[in-house]
Amino acid sequence: MKKYIVVIKILLLLGVLSCLAKTKSQVEIEYQIRSFNEERVEFTLGRDTLVGYLSKPSNTKKYPVIVVLHSASHGHHNNQLYNHLEKNMNEIGVAVFTYDRRGSGESTGDFNTASLETLAKDALSAVNVLVQRKDIKTNQVGFFGISQGGWLAPCAYSISPKYISFMVLVSSSGVSPAKQMEYSAVTTLRMNNYSDSVIKVAKHLRSITNEYYRGNKERQSTQEEIDEYKEEEWFSDVYLPWRGNLPEDVTTTKWIHEMDFDPREYYQKVDIPIMLFYGEADRWVPIDESVHVWKEVFDKNGNSKFEIIRVKSAGHMMILNEDSNPEEEIISEQYTAELKKWVSNILKE
User: What residues does CATH 3.40.50.1820 cover in the chain?
Assistant: First the structure.
């Protein structure tokens, strides 16, 4: 009898462990399937086929839609912030379209060789497919861009503004990728209590690396200088492209095509209602400088339909106390409430 009891306990334990062993992505997928009325949608750009999912509000025959433009690190359609957007927008009668970025998930293509302009055109291809549908309100199509998507959405709008009527950008940097990554390196090193002398070296390493990519420095001497510091414990916080291993042919890398991207060129063309969110604890984006750039371009192009919200205690992805590595990642309630209110008001106009 004791043996049977032991066996039963083991089986029960294994059942519990199997539930606990589910990956975060599995849990998110199950949550998404339970919560959303989704439809798989394919679209193409040239020879590449991209796959997305349209999350539709219930009990609505025709609805506005928001197309998501990815952050650099989150190229799959299934992501915590994207799922959060779907749930909250569906609640106010708005559909959300998320897709696997080229070279990710079910989508073909190569992300590693794609320029920011190419990624922007992918989003426009999605829009062109969605507006052909009878269930989409073609006069209420919006973009949602997070992090790198904060560059991509204005870039896409400047290429083809025809169907885009509003925009929500989260953590949108007003400086070039090269300047943003220097800011991120400095902020991270300070957060980790490194000295000003270390920060000075880090800025120098980023500078000489960028100059090599621009064709202004010789490879061997630049690599030797970088190699002097590769064993330092702070080296990974400098965020050098290719981890400081300089490629012989920079044209095969993404960094050469992105590093000097000037967002101001595209921001100044945004003349539609736009909501900008910045987490006060964001260590990746120079918030004050970015806000200044946006206000400057709005002043020049006459766009008065903008709102800028600084979200308390939130980081780059709108997660509370993000850089403290919380066990449970909680998206800011302030961000959620302001997002729903703003989108609802814009769609009523």
Answer: 24-175+262-348
CATH superfamily of 24-175+262-348: Alpha/Beta hydrolase fold, catalytic domain (3.40.50.1820)
Residue 253, classified by CB atoms within 10 Å of its CB into exposed (0-12), middle (13-18) or buried (19+), is: middle
Alpha-carbon span 153 to 286, nearest angstrom? 19
Residue 314 DSSP label? B
Sign of the C-alpha dihedral, residues 53, 59, 61, 63?
A: negative
**Both structure tokens of 307:** 């709102």
Distance (Å, whole) CA 243 – CA 168: 32
> What share of residues in the chain are helix, strand, coil (percent, to 5)?
50, 20, 35
Q: Render pLDDT for 253-263 as a digit per residue (tens, 0 to 9).
A: 889 989 999 99
pLDDT digits (tens, 9 = 90+) for 45-93: 889 999 999 999 987 789 999 999 999 889 999 989 999 999 999 999 9
pTM attached to this predicted model: 0.86
DSSP string computed for 220-275 = HHHHHHHHTTTTSTTGGGG--GGGG---S-GGGSSHHHHTT--HHHHHTT--S-EE
